[in-house]
User: Fold these one by one.
Assistant:
Number 1:
Amino acid sequence: MGTLNARDKLRAALLSLLIAVAALAIWHVTTVKPAPTAATGVSAEYAALMGKGAEKTDGLPPPAKVAEAFVHHLGRPFYDNGPNDKGIGVQLAYSLARVGLGFVLAVVVALPLGFAIGMSPLLYRALDPFIRVLKPISPLAWMPLALYTIKDSDISGVFVIFICSIWPMLINTAHGVASVRKEWLNVARTLELKPWRKAFEVVLPAAAPTILTGMRISMGIAWLVIVAAEMLVGGTGIGYFVWNEWNNLALPNVIFAIVVIGVVGMALDALFGRLQRAATYRE
Amino acid sequence: MSTSFLAVEALSKSYVPGAPPVFENLHLSIHQGEFVCIIGHSGCGKTTVLNVLAGLEEPSSGHVLMGGRQINGPSLDRGVVFQGHALMPWLSVLRNVVFAVRSRWPEWSRAQAEAHARKYLEMVGLGHVLQKKPAELSGGMKQRVGIARAFAIEPKMLLLDEPFGALDALTRGMIQDELLRIVRSTSQTVFMITHDVDEAILLADKVLLMSNGPRARIAEVVEVTMPRERTRLTLHHDPQYYRIRNHLVDFLVHRSKDYGDGGPAAAGHDPRHPPVVRPGLEESATVTPLPLERMRPPLAAVPHESPPRLRAQGE
């Protein structure tokens, strides 16, 4: 990692391209079918009954079909033709809004609470069993409870994101705050720093790299969970889009959505990676 | 002792209840403008004494008076230079000092605080690295930032916890000279821990010798009876230097362990009034001069390379 020179980087990029081309080629070769002939034994009437023909249900779609889906969706990302027909941009916006809202709520709770836990060994001890039990619960397990008590599928989705992204942030904040170097705290004490100045100008920057690592993990989990949550609650979002296209048996659209989910997840991770680097200090 | 600027009375500290205290019945006083070094082996509680003076640790018993008032916690009146420099690595050199300046004078404007910080950084010869982060500096430069930060708040007293321990010999010598110059020009009162006998003689007006722990105490107060205007390069031309040096080394090597329970020096030693010794001028009864062949002139550039080098790891 890290110390590749420009020539090696170019080589790596070429290799990546080669792998992509090879994968597409294999995909193409294994999925492309000979043009359907009339002598398949299936009557034209039956084929018409089944809609656009039998090819749709037969195995993985070839790359060309998926490429068509890409062109189709990316060409018109923001249309809205009612509940089951929205552009991919609109669906993504719904998902990102839920993730963003749940994540921000988790930050609002996890940061102060993590600070308190990190500062107070007593609180650390007292809350530790609860955190240990709550952390490994799959966020989706909360869904029925959320739907029942909140009675709103949209807010329930946000709640699920909140509950899954709070733990890494809480634990990392507490850990980061608890392990601020004693000598920096001693400097703060000898300078008679007011508590808020100590918190914001010593403890926070000292713990920032650890806190941001927690946020990055949380965001990764939130993006994983939103797809499943939206499949469950339905209505809008990229997860619902995937489920809806599955119900339509439009596999090119499903593959398109999978790629989009990956790319957006990568972008979110890169964003937090950048924040993390900005907060990291060299000792 | 009502004239003293800082007075320590009957101080003791034990970390484990029931176990013998690290030090006990510690009495000392420091006058305004005085430079006091404390020397002793690892584990005698030097750093604890300094932390108590700083207000960072509570003594188990006894108290510390500064200007007649009891010390109850850390204060901007006492600037501390920490052993490991303790700079904030996320702040630039200038910001580190400004951080301290803003604590002292919160009402100052940003420009005012920066100008003040810059002045002290220039004083320690770091005017050219203001925007650098501590990680980009050498160990000696970092420690100079720590010194500038402590001076910049213009404390009534400066506490230095073995500030040059981690530095190489040349850097150490340069910073010692700098510190001496600044302390003299500002008439700063200083309390400093060191493991280095030569450093103590160069800098101090008096050297407190601490016996080994547990139950460490101040065994002697050695007055450095040399002109105050000393320099590292001419120090060893003064015959008085060797008398003091031998006295200190002799204490560390031979006598520091004699003050424990039933030790040969414990009887008749009054921890309230430890003997004040002026080696070479009035020989104290407790002093055993070293045989001549053990006297060796120190190397001018690397004074602390002289034997025996008594440095600790764990403090």
Note: The interface with chain A takes residues 54-56, 73-76, 78-80, 82, 84, 86, 88-90, 99-100, 103-104, 133-135, 153 of chain B (CB under 8 Å).
Number 2:
Amino acid sequence: MLRFLYSAVLRAHPPYFRERFSDEMQAIFDQADTDLTQARLLADAVFSLARQWMLRPQFWEEPAPVAAEGGTALFSSLASSKPRALALFSGAILSALVLNGVSLTIGYAWEHPIFIQIHRPTIVPPAAWKARPVMKPDSNASDEPYLFTDQGRVLLVFNSPSHPSLQARSTAKPTSEAGMSTVPLADIAPSPTNNIVDTPPVILQTYAGTYVSPAPAGQRVIVTIDSGRLQLDVTGQFRSPLAPLPNPQLLACGVGDCWVMFSTGPKGTVDRIEVHHLGREMVAFRAQSGMIF
Amino acid sequence: MKQIPTTFLPLSPATLHILLSLAGEELHGYAIMQEVQRQSEGKYKLGPGTLYDNLQKMIDRGLVEELGKKPGDDDPRRRYYRLSMLGRGVLTAEISRLDDVVREGKMRLQAKPRRA
């Protein structure tokens, strides 16, 4: 171990010194018979390293010859102007580290505003937005996507007419003669106890499964059914019950500022989930059988 | 251009001991360390970092010459060094200077101190 460290310290010396003396210094180290002696030699090498880099700049590189015998001038070629590959590699690593450090700091400060006071603007929606339309159950869901807001957030939901949940809803009772009714905005609020829609278990069953997110890579989202209710488990982050909202693909979590939306694929099966939590969005896709995490 | 030995004086203890160890014969680095330790009766231990830093400067100033490796040596990594003519002149000048210092010191210490 000490020999490895000693060799590393010798390799860190300026090139000219290293070429001339590192072999001899290593030979002297190899003759040391006790650990204490080797430790002293290692300390001596560390001091030498600092001395050579800080006090001996004239010996960093081999001096160029000035003249040959007889006074004939000698010409030496200059070193390449291109940066060394090692310098480029070190610069790339350093840049990546700095960038990651800044990103992590910003992310941490966002989650912990005690360190950096981040002002989050609060937008209060107009009173006219306090209600949103609900699709007529027997109407074609793809006719018109609808818009509603939640504390200043605008949400567009595009229904898929091929989804079985929509077909199931088409058999439900109409809410009013006009085919449209108003539901308070609080429906979308993250409280599964409010405005829970009675969704058939067969539809809930289509949501259950394991989903995997590409970003962050490998993040698992598990949706299960427990006592007839959907349970969301974002592995390593939070667990929450899910409450179906009037839109059959939209579900509210039991934790604050969280909702979930499922999407169907070309085959009509639910294979995509969006988890919106604390202003962040994560997309995950249903894990296929045989996948290895 | 011929260099004057006295311009190198006074020498640092490390430089003096290295020049002294090379005054008798050409030596490799480890032998120089052992010779310095022997000369000072174990009171002055020279580490490899200090040794080669001083050797580097002395070679650059022309006080010591590097001979390279010797065939048949126990360790093929060893290089040998010897005193140059300039180095020998510098060592002679330094010994003479120290001799004067010692003589002057002895003379002053033997004299009776005056009372104020």
Note: The mean pLDDT of chain A is 74.
